[in-house]
User: Fold these one by one.
Assistant:
Number 1:
Amino acid sequence: MERISWNQYFLAQSHLLALRSTCTRLAVGATIVRDKRIIAGGYNGSIAGGVHCTDDGCYVIDNHCVRTIHAEMNALLQCAKFGVPTAGAEIYVTHFPCLQCCKAIIQAGISSVYYAMPYKNHPYAEELFKQSGVEVKHIDFNGTHSDAKNEQRAALVKELLGRLADGSEMETELDELYERAQRLFPESIEN
Ligand SMILES: [Zn+2]
Ligand SMILES: [Zn+2]
């Protein structure tokens, strides 16, 4: 049995939270950790009780969905709501934080940011983190499956799609299947 590392464990938690996202633009999850204990979590979504982007579509202004509260912000606000100190805590996020979240993270006294995926990494956010002495680390998230198994799965899906494509006339369906497979195995399956 392979034991999961703390980094992988907390990132897995963030990825799990991302599945609760209600903004269709990007599913993000954030987990705040202190002394190896999870103290808060958040995902991209509307205010409590508000309309969801998944139901009504995003409310986009200047290319941003203004309905959504970002995962990092939601996690920090959960701490504010229940009076949990964030000074010296760490945050694990599925994506590199945006500029607004970067500033909130710094101001809340978070000491380290661990992220699984780069996302339009803003140079000013990187600069602010550095200037504030916040450690920022990119962690390769492996999921809960071993890489080897995942590659085998990707190979199988690829082979099946290839066989389907041979002499098949259902092009739109195949394109859709390819897209879904690519989302599942972004590194292993290209169209
Ligand atoms: Zn939205
Ligand atoms: Zn943000």
Note: The mean pLDDT is 91.
Number 2:
Amino acid sequence: MSGSNDITQAIKDIISRARARYIKTGITRNISIAVEKYLRNNATPAEISTYAIGSDNINLIRTLLKSKRPDCSKCGAPLKLSFNVLDQEGRRFPTAFECVQCGLVCYLSHTLPELIKVLLNES
Ligand SMILES: [Zn+2]
């Protein structure tokens, strides 16, 4: 497992710092504005590049899933991608495909960048 560079977790950390600094203090109620301000005023260069890579990855996976979103093997509905998912035994998976229709969950050990590579190689 390569859980050390979990980009979605790093982004969540940045968002929670932005929330603490700009939302909890009442400066704004909009999380995108809070993140923007945080990146401009408070973020370290490492955080800025992590956030840029992460947002690129999230945009890329959205585009990829538009053309090749997997369908549920049970009911055929399109599956929804989730991040940092716990299974019933409390094990954490970096990504998972979930069926909103019938509740089927397909847990993946791929991190977001790994999943992008898999989807790109399938074409
Ligand atoms: Zn289903």
Note: The helical segments are 7-23, 31-41, 45-68, 112-122.
